[in-house]
TrEMBL record:
UniProt-recorded name of the protein: Integrase zinc-binding domain-containing protein
Pfam families per UniProt: Integrase_H2C2
Source superkingdom: Eukaryota
InterPro entries the UniProt entry points to: Gypsy_RT_Integrase-like, Integrase_H2C2
Native source organism of the sequence: Perkinsus olseni (Perkinsus atlanticus)
């Protein structure tokens, strides 16, 4: 708990393996847009979809009509509208890896090279 903050006890979203409820910080109306922007437009993942944005916010935070707020925000997001693909395309669940120190991960491309002279 955070001193002086309003908390709500609610189920943990999208987690069938976590049986207990969790405390979520209640976000005042005048701060909700800041949270929507932060969780939807993340530097490492561009514009996240409605479900991903809702899931990220809903894990630790709550406000009345949260799902409706996320839906409306994503629907009116100019960046999403400009990049929106036509059709019903499925998107993979790739996540950007964040490395904290050099050489914590290495990648090698193996390609056949022409013989030298």
């Amino acid at each position: 708990p955070i001193d002086g903050a309003l908390m709500m006890v609610a189920p943990y979203p999208d987690a069938w393996d976590i049986p207990e409820d969790v405390e979520k910080l209640v976000i005042p109306v005048d701060h909700q847009l800041t949270f929507l922007r932060y969780f939807h437009i993340q530097p490492d993942s561009a514009h996240r979809g409605r479900e991903a944005t809702l899931s990220s916010i809903g894990r630790s935070f709550w406000w009345n009509n949260l799902a409706r707020s996320v839906k409306k925000f994503c629907k009116h997001c100019l960046g999403c509208q400009l990049r929106k693909k036509s059709g019903d395309q499925k998107v993979g669940r790739l996540r950007t890896s964040i490395y904290t120190k050099p050489f914590s991960a290495l990648g090698i491309d193996l390609i056949e090279m022409p013989a030298g002279k």
